[in-house]
Please model this.
Amino acid sequence: MKFIISKTALEMAVKKICRVINTKNALPILADILCMVDEERKTITMTGSDAEAWLTYQVALQECEGGGPFCIGADLLRDALAELTEQPLTILATTESDNRFTLQHESGTTVLPLELSDEYPTPRHIDSTVNEWTLESGMLKRVLKRSMFATANDDLRPVMNGVYFDMCEDGVLNVVTTDGHMLIRSVEDTDTDNLPGSFIMTKEAANLLPTLMDGDDEVVMTFDYSAVRVEQGLMSFTFLMVEGKYPNYMSVIPQDAPYSLTADRPALLKALRNVAHFTPGSSRLVKLTMLSNQTMELRGEDFDFSTEATDRIAIDYPAGRDMTLGVKADSIIDELSRIIEPRVTMHFTDPSRAVTFAPIDPLYQGEEITMLLMPMLVNEE
Model:
C-alpha cells in the first residue's frame, strides 16, 4: 500500500500514542503501533496499548492506494519523524513480501521493519447501550488536575488508588479521590440527559487523559461493567476500570459542623509554608489555633532540632471560641494549592474530627468543591 500524509498530523498522533505504550511489556508486539489504512475513507487509524488501555487516533490521508493493517515500532517511527519539517510524506508499506515501511521525505528516505498485525490485542469492546455521558473537556481536565494528589498507593485497597466518578440524578457528577487521610470531592453540573452510574478510573488513565483532550470540545464517555471509553473528535481512549466498591464518601464529610471561619487563601498558604519548614520530619504537624480576636495562629516546632516558628493571619471567625487543631503541613498545603479562588471557608467541630475547606464563590458556575482533612493529635502544653 502507498499513502501520502502530513508530517505534523502523523507526528502528533504518534507522540500521543507513545504515552500509553509500555516498551517493557511482556508482549513484544505492544511496543508497536497498530495501523489500519482505509483506502475508501482515505484515513489511517493508529492504536497503541499496554494491554490495559488502548489509545486510537484517526488521521486523514492526502492520497491513498491500497489498504490494510500493519504494525510498526513506536519509538522507531517517532525518531524517524523527529527532525523532519512539515511536509507531505510518502509512505510505502509492504506486508506481503519483505515487510518494509519506507518513508520518503524531501531530502531522503527512511526504511523501517514492519510486523504483522495478527498478534496485536484487540481493543476492549464496550456496549454503548449500557451507559453514556457527555461532558465538557475543560471541566474534566480541571477536576482531574485538582483531585489526583489525594489518591492512595494501597495494594490492599486498590479502589482507593483511583478516581471515583459518580453521576447522580439530573446530571450532577461527583468526582472523588481519597487516601484515607485526605478527601477531595468536586460536584459538577453536567448534561441532564446523563443517566446515573458510577465507575473508578485508574490512576494511570486519570493522569494521561487530560494530556489527550484538545481544545474545549465535549467528550463522550461510555462505560459498561469493566471498561471505559472516552472519545473526542478523532481520538478514542479505552481503559479498564478499577474493580471493587468505592467507600461511602458522603459518610465521612461533616454535614453540620458548628464552627466555621473564612480566610484569605494566599495569606493562609504563605503562613503555612513559613511554619512548615520547622515541623518534625516524621509528622509534619502544624498547629492551627483559632482565637476570639479574629486571628489564626500557626505554629510549627521540632523539639529534636530545637526549632519553632509562628505566624498569624486575620480571619473572620463568628463563633469566637479559642480552639487548636493539628494538621499535616503537606496535606493542607496541597489542598489549598488546588483552589484558585482568593478566599476559602473552613468548617470544623472539634480537634478530633475532620476539617473541611471550600472556596468562596467558585469561579466556575455549577461547581462545588469540598476538601477534607483528618486532624492530627495535638499535645496541649
